[in-house]
Design goal:
ten-stranded mixed sheet; 11 helices
Length: 352
């Protein structure tokens, strides 16, 4: 039987799942990665995880995401996560742009998508959720990267990319990780020291601008000011944390990581650096769930959607392709549901 899932686990996660299966209350952290339209392939998996598997929890679950990952997790942290995901998918797929749209237009469209995702009272639901603790990763920019002048911003990003070739730590010269969260003193991420990091409470006033900033891709969307967060221009959290590769906190609880790929790329500037992939240190307790190569081969054009589809495909063709991705991606959720119900999940997991 052809599988739709790739299941990879670190040694501690593999041991625990083999001992007693995958249980919702064994999970401490659920990360969400940047990737724009790539999230559509995970929508079927998200529906099963968010709307079924995790609904029986009693312990807090720490959600940490950058860019589109934070938007997916904002769906989970609402009372009806499946309805939020459906609103999100429909509004996201329907976005349309003229050739070379200005950042102001893309930001305006993104606000309308966020409005659909949150609905009339999404902020209140997220902030008062009984067990979901949302963490929104943003990047506060300084110097050249804070400019909204394209040439100046591009120069700052180029300097950042050059420094990143030597070490990710050099990014701290121009940028700072700012995490908005509703976990208070219980957040497992307060000790992060790999990059300059600031932790701020998620509030009714800053939730929407923080989510918008987390998805504000440099040069594509405008920078964002966030009320009460301190001066600075806030941009895409994926610049620093493209696929969150973090110290996921103490304890033995699992890290459940639904992802587009069977590997993790730490930062935006690492995308083209084949040698810059996440190592094993932060993933001993992680279960990485991604589309199988067989599923990807079934998708339109044999690939996961990406931002180039806006340029490469006419709107009607893009909408048709993306809706097909949603339909094919449902196989991931269906297969996970079956493996959980049958107790055979551990048989299909390979070491990460």
């Amino acid at each position: 039987m052809t599988s739709s899932l790739t299941l990879l686990a670190g040694p501690d996660a593999l041991r625990l799942i083999r001992e007693r299966g995958l249980r919702a209350d064994d999970i401490n952290v659920l990360p969400g990665a940047s990737g724009g339209p790539k999230w559509l392939v995970l929508a079927g998996l998200d529906r099963v995880l968010f709307g079924e598997f995790l609904q029986g929890r009693t312990r807090p679950l720490h959600l940490i995401g950058s860019s589109i990952g934070s938007w997916r997790l904002a769906c989970l942290a609402q009372k009806d996560p499946v309805a939020a995901l459906e609103r999100f998918a429909e509004s996201y797929i329907e976005q349309r742009y003229p050739p070379k749209p200005p950042p102001s237009l893309v930001s305006t469209t993104s606000r309308s998508i966020l409005d659909a995702l949150l609905g009339p009272d999404g902020e209140e639901q997220i902030l008062s959720h009984p067990w979901a603790r949302l963490h929104v990763l943003t990047t506060r920019c300084r110097g050249l990267t804070a400019s909204d002048q394209p040439q100046v911003q591009m120069l700052g990003l180029a300097l950042g990319a050059l420094g990143n070739l030597v070490s990710r730590r050099t990014l701290g010269l121009q940028m700072e990780r700012v995490i908005f969260h509703g976990a208070g003193d219980t957040s497992p991420f307060t000790g992060l020291s790999d990059l300059p990091s600031v932790h701020l409470p998620l509030t009714r006033e800053n939730l929407r601008p923080a989510l918008l900033a987390s998805g504000s891709i440099p040069l594509v969307l405008s920078g964002v000011s966030i009320p009460g967060a301190g001066s600075g221009v806030y941009r895409d959290g994926g610049v620093l944390d493209y696929h969150p590769d973090l110290e996921f906190g103490p304890g033995e609880g699992l890290v459940l990581y639904p992802h587009f790929y069977p590997y993790v790329v730490p930062g935006w500037f690492d995308k083209s650096l084949r040698w810059r992939r996440a190592g094993p240190a932060n993933f001993r307790r992680a279960l990485l769930i991604s589309p199988s190569p067989e599923l990807v081969a079934r998708l339109p054009y044999g690939k996961i959607p990406d931002r180039e589809d806006f340029v490469r495909l006419p709107d009607a063709e893009r909408l048709r392709a993306w809706r097909q991705v949603l339909a094919e991606g449902q196989r991931m959720g269906d297969e996970l549901r079956e493996l959980l119900a049958s107790g055979r999940l551990a048989e299909h997991i390979r070491p990460l």
